[in-house]
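To illustrate the input format used throughout this study, we show a single complete record. The first block contains the structure-token representation of the backbone; no residue identities are included at this stage. The design step must infer an amino acid for every position from geometry alone.
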């Protein structure tokens, strides 16, 4: 006999676990299925390779999910200053949080810590049942419910299935949802470095021929780097001895920090843009990387996914007050139009920005544009509000409302 839940969430990464926690705190029963046993986060270990720049909107969402206080307690680094440069000209964009009435521009956190804190919330919830490690062998849907068969033999019945199972989503493939894909023939090289002087708490990015270099501040004064290079060059940088790599990195960042003293382990991952043609198929909903993947130059990937989760919860809470089926076409269509539009605008903007900065012939145009933005308070505020995840079309949870306020409204 199948176990019955309101919603099945497949994938317990940052976005999936956030969706599960928000749903449970909103009163829904949730089955959370994850293929891999997540490691226990150990704050005594060095900062991991995979970090995210969480927007203020995302931190508000994680606070409502019940995880943000634990993340801040363990390890995080807020930043209030951001500097963007283009090597091809002298233009520099600087953003200071207080100038725009913001407490911070963002917070650098480790992905594993965010997942660990969220799974702690899930494990303590009476409305969430964890199926970890386990995988979905098949999902069948009808007019009334979705039926999941797990590899463990467990059967799950739910009104709705959330596919949050990554960029290669098996559920997306099972439901035949196609994607548009742009392969950039680039890789993002990541590592943690110590510099002289230490990072002063600034998120810094320089656009270089071949791709941008970003240094993200960490609490101990070190920096997490994301260095976008053509794939073959990234592989070459990975293979360099540490001393040669530090020299190459110092040359790329010259003029901002004096030198690279140490670098930790390095890794690189291929970069592409992927946009799903649909986010909904029957009782299946795509969230996060299963729905969209964007270039990391603007640091918006996980922020888009967390906004997906908050938007869906907002729609479902409003629907429950009217007694509607959670899998109804009209209800899910509203979510799909909302989030697909937002994601495509963001992805398209990042794609255009990447193209602009990849062309040496457009250096003059870039300089003119950056100079105009640097002189325009309105342009900088518009950019910041969207990057902060708190624009007019953002989910209400991202804009500071609470789950309780959503639950109180008819």
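Output of the design step:
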């Amino acid at each position: 006999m199948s176990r019955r839940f309101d919603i099945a969430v497949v994938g317990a990464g940052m976005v999936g676990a956030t969706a599960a926690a928000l749903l449970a705190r909103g009163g829904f029963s949730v089955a959370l299925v994850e293929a891999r046993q997540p490691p226990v986060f150990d704050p005594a270990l060095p900062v991991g390779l995979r970090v995210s720049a969480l927007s203020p909107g995302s931190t508000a969402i994680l606070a409502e999910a019940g995880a943000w206080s634990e993340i801040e307690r363990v390890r995080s680094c807020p930043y209030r200053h951001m500097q963007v440069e283009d090597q091809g000209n002298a233009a520099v964009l600087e953003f200071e949080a207080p100038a725009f009435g913001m407490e911070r521009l963002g917070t650098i956190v480790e992905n594993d810590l965010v997942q660990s804190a969220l799974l702690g919330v899930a494990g303590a919830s009476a409305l969430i049942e964890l199926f970890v490690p386990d995988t979905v062998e098949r999902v069948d849907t009808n007019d009334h419910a979705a039926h999941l068969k797990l590899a463990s033999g467990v059967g799950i019945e739910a009104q709705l299935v959330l596919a949050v199972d990554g960029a290669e989503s098996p559920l997306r493939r099972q439901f035949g949802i196609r994607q548009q894909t742009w392969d950039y023939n680039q890789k993002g090289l990541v590592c943690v470095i110590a510099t002289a002087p230490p990072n002063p708490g600034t998120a810094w990015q320089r656009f270089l021929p071949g791709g941008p270099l970003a240094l993200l501040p960490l609490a101990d004064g070190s920096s997490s780097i994301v260095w976008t290079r053509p794939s073959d060059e990234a592989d070459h940088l990975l293979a360099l001895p540490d001393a040669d790599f530090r020299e190459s990195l110092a040359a790329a960042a010259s003029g901002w920090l004096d030198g690279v003293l140490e670098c930790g382990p390095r890794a690189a991952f291929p970069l592409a843009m992927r946009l799903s043609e649909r986010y909904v198929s029957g009782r299946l909903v795509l969230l996060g990387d299963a729905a969209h993947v964007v270039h990391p130059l603007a640091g918006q990937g996980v922020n888009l996914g967390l906004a997906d989760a908050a938007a869906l919860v907002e729609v479902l809470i409003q629907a429950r007050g009217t007694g509607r089926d959670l899998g109804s076409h009209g209800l899910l269509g509203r979510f799909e139009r909302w989030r697909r539009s937002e994601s495509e605008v963001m992805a398209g903007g990042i794609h255009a920005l990447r193209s602009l900065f990849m062309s040496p012939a457009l250096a003059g145009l870039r300089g003119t544009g950056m100079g105009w933005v640097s002189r325009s308070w309105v342009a900088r505020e518009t950019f910041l509000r969207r990057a902060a995840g708190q624009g007019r079309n953002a989910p209400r949870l991202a804009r500071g409302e609470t789950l309780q306020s959503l639950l109180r409204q008819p």
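Structural context for interpreting the output: The two ends are 35 Å apart (CA to CA). The domain at 3-180+272-408 is CATH 3.50.50.60 (FAD/NAD(P)-binding domain).
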